[in-house]
Amino acid sequence: MRELIEKLKKGVEIENGKILKAEVKGGRFAQEFNLDLFLEGRLLLHVKLFLGREHYRDWIELFGLSKDIYGTELEEKILDLFSPHTGRLFIEYFEDLKTVEELKKGIPPALSRLGFQLAKRGFTYVRDWYIPEGLMEGGHKLQGEKTESQEVQEKRFKELEKDLEEFLKKSGDEELKRKALERFKILESLWKRG
């Protein structure tokens, strides 16, 4: 992840010659970094990177996203930029009204609009959560987890299939059920290949 930090300090071309650049600050301890990401001088989001230490795994958190990023090609490019660098990615979604709506209707997190974006990038476990931590927790977020174990991946797929079946039985929203099935079929082809 240190290479990613250095790359972002210098700037990364992200779309049509536009440069995504980070201002980097130290975190609460040596392995943590805070980044403010700018596109052509406009603040897009904040990033917290933890490099890991001892038995604590690394992670990346994306938060404070401009609401006009959600559901765009820019969102996909940002996820593509960070996803390969960690097995655990958190992304705040409370300004992503589509994801909020779908989760309120009971769709499994990995099949929600934003959760599907994580799942397509190899995060085979997606969890919706908010844990109060004395005003340090940030907003509602999705957590994506990758695994290198084929056995764990298959188990996660079966759990998602079961969650989908439950959702399909309970939901009265036919359009959302169609989307959930469509997204599930795409993940099935991706995850069974992996």
The fraction of residues in strands falls at: 25-35%
Q: Look at the structure and give the mean pLDDT.
A: 92
Please name the fourth-level CATH homologous superfamily: Gcn5-related N-acetyltransferase (GNAT)
State the order of secondary-structure elements, H for helix, E for strand.
HEEEEEHEHHEEHH
CATH topology: Aminopeptidase
Report the span from N to C terminus.
Answer: 23 Å
CATH class division: Alpha Beta
Number of strands: 8
* Secondary-structure content class: alpha+beta
Number of helices: 6
Notes on the protein architecture:
With 194 residues, the chain is α+β, with helices and mostly antiparallel strands. It has a single domain (2-193), classed as Aminopeptidase, CATH 3.40.630.30. It is built from six helices and eight strands. The protein has helices spanning 2-10, 73-82, 97-104, 113-120, 150-170, 174-193; strands at 12-15, 18-26, 32-39, 42-50, 59-63, 88-92, 125-129, 141-145. The protein has an eight-stranded mixed sheet with strand order 1-2-3-4-5-6-8-7. Helix 5 (150-170) packs antiparallel against helix 6 (174-193). The radius of gyration is 17 Å and the shape is globular.
